[in-house]
Amino acid sequence: MIVRIIAFVFLSLLGIFMTYPLLWLISSSFKENNEIFKSLSLIPQKIVMNSYSEGWKGIGQFGYSTFFGNTFKLVIPITFFTVISSTMVGYGFARFTFPFKKFFFSVMLAGLMLPSSVIIIPRYLLFNRFGWLDSYLPFIVPAMFATNAFFIFMMVQFFRGIPKELDEAGIIDGCNSLQILTRILLPLCKPAIFSAMLFQFIWAWSDFFSPLIYINSVKKYPLSLALRMMLDLGEQAQWNQIMAMSVLSIVPPVILFFTAQKYFVEGISTSGLKG
């Protein structure tokens, strides 16, 4: 009994410690600008109610409705095409035999271990030659061709855990390879698909470095660049407005996570254990 009480107290304190930064962020959005960094208290001395409305006005002629719209225009196609392309390539590696299959799979795994910083300059030069800079094409087009080895590997592992007898039953019923994938395997792959969707959405939503390199126009900025730009304007940053917009910026990923939590946990627990 004593051990359980100690464990409960310890986990409660750990939970408070882990959630404190988030609570501080929300609390700071209602504090006066000069109070935010003077106290660690979560209770504002004076509640400021206009930080959200003022922050939503944004920067110059561009408000946060523009930046939120840009972020969705960027993140949704990336997530959609990444899931589709990774599923197709993972299905090919898991279910088909073709020349140099092991070699291509090894190259894919090598890409998984390659730091993204290594290919920044070659990709920039390539996209510059294509005339894709200051657009969303450097993000969307690679997503169409399954360039993220992590999701390919995850889908391969999940497909390997599905009995091949299901494929054979589909062939007997007259299904071709595409029909086997769409009618038989995809319904069973919901956990892995939702996991890939959630990971890619959060990564693309919070990405700062890549948009900083490829996007130059303020009217095309996603939220990550817009929040950073608010620090560069004026003599003193309006921290309560920055905190308010930061709170709003984490709402869509949080909603998506709790919506897909069931499939996410199942996908993570199964995709890495089979094969």
From TrEMBL:
Matches recorded under Gene3D superfamilies: MetI-like
Keywords from the named record: Cell membrane, Membrane, Transmembrane, Transmembrane helix, Transport
Any one of the GO CC terms: plasma membrane
Superkingdom to which the source organism belongs: Bacteria
Subcellular location: Cell membrane
GO biological process: one example: transmembrane transport
InterPro entries noted in UniProt: MetI-like, MetI-like_sf
Residues of the ABC transmembrane type-1 domain: 68-260
Transmembrane segment boundaries: 5-26, 74-94, 103-124, 136-159, 180-203, 239-260
Membrane topology annotation: Multi-pass membrane protein
Keyword Transmembrane helix attributed: yes
UniProt similarity note: Belongs to the binding-protein-dependent transport system permease family.
Protein name per UniProt: Carbohydrate ABC transporter permease
UniProt source species: Vallitalea guaymasensis
Lineage start: Bacteria, Bacillati, Bacillota, Clostridia, Lachnospirales
